[in-house]
Amino acid sequence: MGMGKVWLIGAGPGDIGLFTIKGKEVLEKAEVVVYDSLVGQGILSQIPSSARKIFVGKRASHHTKPQEEINRILLSEAEKGFRVVRLKGGDPFLFGRGGEELELLAEKGIPYEIVPGITSPIAVPAYNGIPVTHRDFCSSLHIITGHKRAGQEYDINFKALVETKGTLVFLMGVSALGDILKGLLEAGMDPEMPAAVLSKGTTAAQKRIVATAGTLEEEAARQGIKAPAIIVVGKVCALAERFAWYEQLPLSGYKVVLTRPRHLISRTGALLREKGAEVLELPAIRTVPLEDQSPLYHALDEIGTYSWLVFTSPTGTEIFFDEMKKREQDIRSLGKIKVAAIGEGTRKKLKEHGIYADLMPETYDGDSLGEALSHQIKPGQRVLIPRAEKGNQNLTAILTAAGAEVADIPTYRTIYEASDVIDEQKEFEAGNIDCAVFTSASTVRGFVESTPGLDHTKVKAACIGKQTKAQADQYGMQTWMAEKATIESLIQLVEDMKKAETRE
Length: 504
Hints:
GO terms for molecular function: uroporphyrin-III C-methyltransferase activity; uroporphyrinogen-III synthase activity. It contains 19 helices and 22 strands. The chain is of the alpha/beta class. Helix 12 packs parallel to helix 13 and helix 17 (441-450) packs parallel to helix 18. The radius of gyration is 28 Å and the shape is elongated.
């Protein structure tokens, strides 16, 4: 094995959309990922499943691993020849001790790269409608760490800061809010100067308290503020109400868990984020093609004898065409066969292969598909259904009753897997998650498998259709169902759920 390499990546302030393109590209190829608790959960869920994950979480006052040990981990993993990613919240070089992590690597001649991150002192005010500079108010910005060593006075020249007349941003200073304001006021700051404390910025839990240098401490104590938070002092804070935009989004402040098959690029997630939701994508199911595809190959050999080809999921569709490719079987061999799709997602997938479905039921589920198809089938016709191992048996029964000869062929199976970086159960129990969004019955099962100790009656479930809702009901979840079984309708459902809650 050759020499490894280390990438120090800034993961930004929390919102997955603020992770850089370069950061994402490097993370996808990582073999070892060293991360801490300040990295946004959305980004943690993007760590490749094949990578080894090492948690070195730091939270004020209880450090899991001392800095020296983190430095040694990076060195030893790189020396073993791995591609090592050190994921850090914000930017690695802004109070992130990135410089310290490089000293040892530089000394030992280990190659490394720095991938800057979007930094919270600029991004968090922006998500709260506060421009850190504005021509009418200030001509400088100062970023100060609010962290002081135990039992020591601040090593901050408050007088010099006040004299800059610039915007002041203090990081990691929640517990020190009083000391910081006292330092500024004693150094001559006008007690009427606008000031704000911004908590959990760029996530659904973001909160801002805007007051003045003289009143911010009691205001924060009255409203309660949770770390991580930043303190902003300066005239620009007065613009927050006017320029606020995040709260205007229909799903702002809403945190959603989306459970889906690992390989599906999620349009649902993208649409929910567009509406302002914080989306935690936790793939709880993985679909794997079966090792032995001989039953499918046998059917493909005599495909000319089949009248109908029926697809019940996008995955089943994808695997069918993959297997045809593997055999180098030409698409024209499907000839005049008629094709049925269970719903919108499956129909789209077929379209990608240049096939327009002849039949799609009004309601997107197995029973409705069987009903619709049974009216079109003549006795003795053959129907091929390549699909998941344990599919809806009713579909086959309905078609057989209509006189069809059905070849129900399993082509893939579903495997359940839990996230190893995010404690989903803890998130639900702490009340951090507003709802779970399910796009199929198997994702509901996957979710339940990966949260074994969770009281599922506490879960609010937004379900795409009948079978998905029935499955969620079986586990006692509080269920809602989309009007139509489409992603758009499902997103509308989540908006309606949020509206109903705000009215309560």
